[in-house]
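Holo prediction — zinc ion.
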Amino acid sequence: MNLPITGGCLCGKVRYEILAEPLWTANCHCRTCQKAVGAPYFAALFVPASALKITGDYKEFASIAASGNTMFRGFCHECGTSLFGRNSRFTNIRPVSAVTLDDPTLYQPEKDIWVSEAQHWDVMNPELPKFAGNPWK
Ligand SMILES: [Zn+2]
Ligand SMILES: [Zn+2]
């Protein structure tokens, strides 16, 4: 991938740059992601926290994940776009919403996670490995 990878929210007030290759990617079908992103799954690139440069004001919503960790979800307080997250335990890795990339065609999903909570009308690529819950623990 050509670096930096850039992206931002719908209104353009929050912008970000990713300065390193993503570590891995996943489509998360958990109920919390569904509600947070307003879609059947959260398509996420996981990037080194030190490589994510954010400009513009955003808000965070905190919720407790199944792991017991706190997940902070960053969104633009102007347009509401869900952009990125941070996990209280894995502070050196940050998920970034693939659909907010300026060029979302860069995104290559590697796996489907939390498929146990997926909607029956959700559509997945049968070629990708599937995990009922969190594959990392
Ligand atoms: Zn915005
Ligand atoms: Zn999720």
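READOUT: The two ends are 28 Å apart (CA to CA).
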